[in-house]
Every structure is written in C-alpha cells, then in structure tokens.
Amino acid sequence: MRYAVIVIIGVLILLGAWFLLVGDDALPSGGNETSGMTEDPETAVSGESAPVGGAGAAVSVDIDAEVEGDIKEFILTGKNFEFSQEEIRVNKGDRVRIVFTSTAGAHNWTVDKFSAATQTVGAGGTSSVEFSADEAGVFEYYCSVGNHRALGMVGNLVVE
Q: What is the value of pTM for the model shown?
C-alpha cells in the first residue's frame, strides 16, 4: 500500500512538472491564441498607448516617475518558444523596466549581465523587473524555463 501511494504521488509530480513546462499548449485552444484578449499587450502601459511595431520591433515608452526619474519601459510577451521582440535598445545608464506577459505556456525573461529576471508566469500572467543598464554592449536575454533558451527563446539587449 505504501508503495502505491509513493507511485501515485510521483506520477502527480511528473504531471505537474510537465504541465508547467508545456503550459496551455498541451490543451486544445480552439484556434485562438489570445484567449479572448481585447487589448494589444504591447500598448497596455499605464493607460498610455505606444506605437506597435512588426515582429521583432522594440517598443519603448518613457514613464515619468517622480521619485525614480525616467524609466525606459518595454512591454514583452512570450509564447512557446519566442519573445514578441528580438531586440531591445537602451542607452548606457538608463533605468530599464521589463514588463513580461506569457501568452502561452510558462515563461520568464532573464538577462544575466545585469542579474535581472522576471518571475516565471503561466499563460496570462505578468511579471516585471527593473535594472540599471550600466555597461555598454550586446547582452543576450532569454527564457530560463527548461530548455526554452536552446529552443530559440532568446533576444538581444543592446546598450549603446
């Protein structure tokens, strides 16, 4: 009896891990990836609108923060296995805020150079991170969930 309980618990843990990695892509979606979203996630920034570019376009909105100064805010979405933007450009010394939303599956946004990462979120979840881009260069950002990075869920943060 004890072994049966251990096996059942093991199977449940494996199923939970599988669902976390695969997320909503494992379920039938009815052909609608946005799950009824009525607003473009790239334009939903503190009640303001931003121009929406094509695939891989960097979308930036400057937010006035009374205490923090100017922050360059970027709205990114992720799905299996790509980000909505393949490149983000900022200036050295900029304060950067990444607002990341997963539209399918469990994902996050990570850039090692600045020790910046959002929390891992499931479909429809949002997380953000702020950091100072205090060194110039080109730095890879990626999703650190499972093997998503190896599957191409990467982009470049260009600090000029």
A: 0.59
